[in-house]
Amino acid sequence: MVAVLLLILGIILFLVIAIALYIFKTQRTLVNLDELCKNAMSQIAVQLNSRWDALLALAKTAAQYSKHESETLIKTITARRQAPITTAEEALQQQGELSQVMGRLMAIGEAYPDLKANDLYLKAAEGVNTYEEHVRMSRMVYNDTATKMNRMVRQWPSSFVASMLNFREKAYLTVDEEKKNLYPDLDEAYGK
Prior knowledge:
By secondary structure, the chain is an all-alpha fold. Helices cover 81% and strands 0% of the residues.
């Protein structure tokens, strides 16, 4: 009788320890993924800020040719590059603003052929493109990390631990389909 009681207590103790270890391990994994998501978002913010800096250099170069338009863009860039980015929505908003400013700068470049041939302008434009590629890669890292986090938050049994510890799904960075539809259809343009 005592042996059976000790066996039952041993099994219960083993289960309690196993559950506690699982909760501990899952909590550490969730915290790790949450921090990786924050880090990836921070990387996006750094790259977007660098892109703003490159756009500022581009606008200052364009100021030689179109003073009024460039001054407006410089003021816009200076104001917007200070905005903090902590969520996917804020990153997408800044990406859209960057695209608008870049479009206006490209229009200035098209209006002034001498500007397009200027070495400083070309280097600044190359810098903008380089930072855009860095932003694209950082977005991919963020979305990959968010996917891992969301799986842990949604899959059983880790979903119980996630809900107990108040972990939530992360939003993905997505492509604005409306803006994507504004791009020309190159197959149609070239008759393919």
